[in-house]
Design goal:
alpha+beta
Length: about 100
């Protein structure tokens, strides 16, 4: 079993039940136990470290369906790699943005 498989399975088993009472909240789960529901990820993360410690735990927003975000890989060890030949690559330097 992979890391967090137990927690993800537990979340899916209770998703609809939790959605009725905690829609949009962030669930904090370790093993087959929910430690609470929080207003934001930061509070859930801090609570996880306080209550569970420095081990793997799941923080996940309670929604009926998961939101999937596709983030393409745009960099490898070299920007001039042939796999990027047909892509426009822009490197953003936040320091330049701050000067404007």
């Amino acid at each position: 079993m992979a890391v967090l498989d137990t927690e993800l399975e537990y979340f899916d088993q209770h998703r609809e039940e939790w959605f009725e009472h905690h829609a949009g909240k962030i669930a904090l789960i370790h093993g087959n136990r929910v430690y609470g529901f929080y207003d934001n990820y930061e509070n859930a993360l801090v609570a996880g470290y306080d209550q569970i410690g420095l081990v793997a735990f799941l923080i996940k927003k309670v929604l009926l369906e998961d939101v999937v975000v596709y983030i393409p890989t745009i960099f490898s060890s070299r920007v001039d790699d042939p796999i990027y030949a047909d892509q426009e690559i822009r490197i953003f330097d936040y320091r330049e943005r701050r000067k404007q």
